[in-house]
Amino acid sequence: MRTTLNLDDQLLDMARHRAVEEKVPLARVIENALRASLSQPAATNKKIRLVTASGIGVQPGVGLDDGRALLDIMDNLS
């Protein structure tokens, strides 16, 4: 079957190189890669359990985007 795909240039170059190395048509390299990908089980949305850590937490007035203040707090804890 004939179809048109828009592929990343670097990915296409890698596929072309593989085709030359294996002395096979580019379409076969793409077909094989697609078969290999589709033969893997699909990723599922598994539930993730997050563990809550205890501690004093973020100090008042310290923003989480202020790395220097966070380092100062960590230094004072040890």
Describe this structure in words.
This protein is mainly α and 78 residues long. The protein has a domain at 9-39. The chain has helices spanning 9-22, 26-39, 67-77. α1 (9-22) packs across α2 (26-39). The longest helix is centred in the first third of the chain and has 14 residues, at 9-22. The protein is elongated, with a radius of gyration of 25 Å.
- Helix and strand content put the structural class at mainly alpha
Strand proportion = under 5%
Ranges with pLDDT <50 over ≥5 residues? none
What Rg do the Cα atoms give?
Answer: 25 Å
Q: Overall pLDDT, averaged?
A: 85
Helix content: 40-55%
Task: State the shape.
Answer: elongated
Q: Would you report the number of β strands?
A: 0
Number of helices, where a helix is a run of at least 4 consecutive DSSP H or I residues: 3
Largest sheet: none
Order of helices and strands: HHH
- Termini Cα gap: 66 Å
Keywords:
mainly alpha; 3 helices; 0% strand; elongated
Question: Brief overview, please?
Answer:
It contains three helices and no strands. The protein is an all-alpha fold. Helix 1 crosses helix 2.
Secondary structure: elements and pairs:
Layout: H1 9-22, H2 26-39, H3 67-77
